[in-house]
Specification:
single chain; 356 residues; Sulfite Oxidase, Chain A, domain 2; 2 domains; 6 helices
Amino acid sequence: MSDISSLVQTQPTGRKKPLQRGARLTPRQVNLALELLVLGAIVTGLVSWSVGDRLSGVLTFAHGVCGITLALLIPAKMRGSVKTGFRRRRLSRWISTLFGVLVLATLALGMLHATGLWFGVGQWSALWTHELFGFATIPFLIWHVVTRPVRPTARDDDRRALLRFGGATAVAATLHVTQRFVAGSVDLAGGDRRSTGSHEIASGDPENMPSVIWLNDSSPRDTDAESWSLTIGGGVVPIDALRSVSRPINAKLDCTGGWWSEQAWDVVPLSSFFDAPIGRSVYVESITGYGRHFPLGELANLYLCVGYGGKPLRRGHGAPVRLVVPGRRGPEWIKWVTSVTVSDRPAWLQPPLPLT
C-alpha cells in the first residue's frame, strides 16, 4: 500500500508558491479534508442510530471509511500545519493538541471495537467510550473551524488534488473491508459483526443479555405485574391478559452500545388493539417519561413484550412489559411501557434521537 502521507506537500512559511499543475495536497487542503472527515464521521455515526438496520449498515460503513481516511491523513497533518503551529508557540496550540488527542483516541477505540481486540471494561465498552469521546470532539471542532477557518477557494478546487483525496478514500474503503476479512480469518470477534457494527452477545440466553438504558433514563423500583398500570388507546390492559395471548417471535435487539442479541420474545401485536385507528402516529411511553412516536403505518411492526423463552422479563430488560420493534435500533425498544396512544402528531416531528 502506498504511503498516503506522501500525497502532501508542505509549504514554507514565507512567500506562498503558486499552485502548480500536478501539485500534491497542500497543508491547507489537508486541513479542509480533515475537517470534512471529522464532521462526516460525527454525522454518519449519529444518524446511524436513528434509522433502521438496513440504512444503519450503509451509514456505519461510511462512518468507518471516514475514520480510516482520517487516520491515513494524520501523518500529513503532523508534518504540515501541526509542525508549523508548534513553531509559533501560541498558547492555543495546547487546545489544538487536546483536540488531536481526542480524535486519535476516538479512532483507536473505534478500531478496537471493529476488530474485536478489546471490548472495554463492564458497561464502559470500547464503542461506548468511542461514542463519548466522539461527542467530546464536537465543541473542539466548532472552536477549530471558528478560530482557524479554512474557507474553500478556487485554488482548492484542483482536479488532481481531488483525485488524490478520492484515492485515499478508496484505499480506506478497501482497508475497511479487508480488516473484517482478516478478523474473520484469525477468528477475532470483529469478523462476524452485523452490518451495524454490533457484536453478538447472549443470543438465546436472556439471563445473560446486557441491561442498559438510554442516556439518563432510570429503572423503576416497582415492576410488579399485578399492580402495573398499562393503558392502550385509553383502556386498561392487565399484564396477565397480555401473557395469556402472547406468542413468540425471534427478533434482534441491536443496541447503540455496540452489541446485539437475538431472543424469542413473547409478544402481542399492537395492531390487535386498534381497529382502523385515525391519526398520524403511535406514541409509546415508559413509566420513566421516556417515549417515542412511530408512524401509524408501522403499527403492525410494533409489539408489546411480556417475556422471552416462556419466562417473564427481568426488571433490567423492561419488566413487566416493553416494546419490541424488529428492524429498529435499541433506543426505540422502549422499556417499562405504561401507555400506548394514537396521536395526531407526525412521527417525524420529534428529535431523530431521544434527548433524555
